[in-house]
Structures are given as structure tokens and as C-alpha cells.
TrEMBL record:
Species of provenance: Candidatus Nomurabacteria bacterium GW2011_GWE1_35_16
Any one GO MF annotation of this record: glucose-1-phosphate cytidylyltransferase activity
Alphabetical UniProt keywords: Nucleotidyltransferase, Transferase
Residue span(s) of domain Nucleotidyl transferase: 3-210
This protein's record includes keyword Nucleotidyltransferase: yes
Gene3D superfamilies in alphabetical order: Spore Coat Polysaccharide Biosynthesis Protein SpsA, Chain A (3.90.550.10)
InterPro entries: G1P_cyt_trans-like, NTP_transferase_dom, Nucleotide-diphossugar_trans
Protein name: Glucose-1-phosphate cytidylyltransferase
Length: 240
């Protein structure tokens, strides 16, 4: 089964300083475990966490629980950018496609179909990104208009000026992805524009539910959904 790499090195300072952001609790488990459970629902059972900030907290947590899937922790550095973190797990996935995601985004997207669409796309992309309609504060993508499930990405801007398709995470990478990542890169701000320039990136259009937990307000909203039994991301959502 394809490996899943999760970027889990951030500090999450807008939430609290008690835990690394991926370990902030949403109900009975941390955010990153919700993301892994979503993947596991679709059969993924091997995860690599690219940690950094307070790596020891991850070791302590995952050594204390049993999970139905394998979790490998790789300390990619306290202050590394996202591109650096991806480069530092290269030896774990080299030569094979892999899934890539953040540790704070939740969705009811069919993750198995996301990967299937990557392999089925006739343009042989090096990166597929799940594109969603969001609040304005995320990186903006302009997709080529067509009726297909995936579309070539024409531009990618980290700071959007309007509401449109944005990077929802839940990505699939070819082994060539490392060719686009240079030293000290932000994956979103530096590497992705290179991939777009080479016309090797597509967007998987997801019209369902999606959200990212960046602030205490976000966390409260998701906590209400979880506690009320309306967690759209749990058990694969409604996209089977």
C-alpha cells in the first residue's frame, strides 16, 4: 500500500503553546490521529510523520497507544521549512509515489479516489493536490476549466486575493517530486510554483466538506461537530 507522509513539525502558536499543533486534542484524540484515521478508512496503513517542534512529545504519545496501522516518526528539525521536511523523509519513500498531507486539515474526500485519479491522469503529473472551495485565507489556485475529475493547474499563489479553489492538502506525489525542492524551500511558496511552471501539477476537485484548524475558533467549531455526532471527516464521510 502507498505510504502516507504527514507534515507535523509546526508549532501551532495560534492554538496554544502546550502541545505541538498536530497533537492538539480534538475530542478523544489529537488532530494528526484524525487525519491518519481518515486515510486508514480507505486502506492506508503506513504513515510517516515529519515532526520537528517537540519531537519527544510525539514519541511519548505514540508509544502510549496501540493503533491499527504503523506510524514512523522522523525528526526533520525544529525550524525546517515544509520543503526541507519533505526532503528529509526522502529515504523512506524514494522510488515510489506517496501521499502527502498536513496534520490539521479534515475532509470527507474519498482518499482512495484521490490517489486513483493521480495514477489515471494522462498528463503523468508529479503532484496532485486536492482543490477545495474555502475561506479566503488560503493559497489560491487557478484551474483550467474542463469536465474531468482532475484539471491542470495554471497558477498558484500563496496569498489569495479572492475566494476560489485552494490547496486543501491531501496530495499525491511522484518520485520526481524531490527534483523540484531546493534547500530551505517552503513547499507551498517555492517548490509548488516550480511544478506548475513545468506543467506537472493537477488539482483534484472536491466539492464536499473540508476545513483546516488554525485557531482556537476553528478548533471550537470542529469540537462542536465531533461532540454532536456530525464529524463529516469521520469514517470516510459520504464519498464512498
Amino acid at each position: 500500500m502507498t505510504k502516507v507522509v504527514l507534515l507535523a513539525g509546526g508549532k501551532g502558536s495560534r492554538l496554544n503553546d502546550i502541545n505541538p499543533k498536530p497533537l492538539v486534542r480534538l475530542g478523544e484524540m489529537p488532530l494528526v490521529q484524525h487525519v491518519m484515521n481518515s486515510y486508514n478508512y480507505f486502506g492506508y496503513d503506513e504513515f510517516i510523520l515529519a515532526t520537528g517542534h517537540r519531537h519527544g512529545d510525539f514519541e511519548e504519545y505514540f508509544n502510549s497507544i496501540r493503533l491499527p496501522y504503523a506510524v514512523r516518526l522522523i525528526n526533520t528539525g525544529e525550524d525546517a521549512n515544509t520543503g526541507e521536511r519533505i526532503n528529509r523523509i526522502r529515504f523512506e519513500v524514494e522510488g515510489h509515489p506517496f501521499c502527502l498531507s498536513y496534520s490539521d486539515g479534515l475532509s470527507d474526500v474519498n482518499l482512495a479516489d484521490v490517489e486513483h485519479s493521480f495514477h489515471a491522469d494522462k498528463s503523468s503529473p508529479d503532484l496532485l493536490i486536492t482543490a477545495v472551495h474555502p475561506p479566503e485565507r488560503y493559497g489560491l489556485m487557478v484551474l483550467e476549466e474542463n469536465e474531468e475529475k482532475t484539471s491542470p493547474i495554471k497558477t498558484f499563489n500563496e496569498k489569495p486575493q479572492r475566494d476560489d479553489w485552494i490547496n486543501g492538502g491531501f496530495m499525491v506525489c511522484s518520485p520526481n517530486i524531490f527534483d523540484y525542492i531546493e534547500k530551505n524551500d517552503s513547499f507551498e511558496g517555492d517548490s509548488i510554483p516550480r511544478i506548475v511552471l513545468h506543467q506537472k501539477m493537477v488539482g483534484y476537485k472536491h466539492l464536499g466538506n473540508w476545513g483546516s484548524i488554525d485557531t482556537q475558533k476553528d478548533l471550537n467549531i470542529f469540537m462542536d461537530l465531533w461532540n454532536s455526532g456530525n464529524a463529516f471527516w469521520a469514517n470516510g464521510g459520504n464519498n464512498l
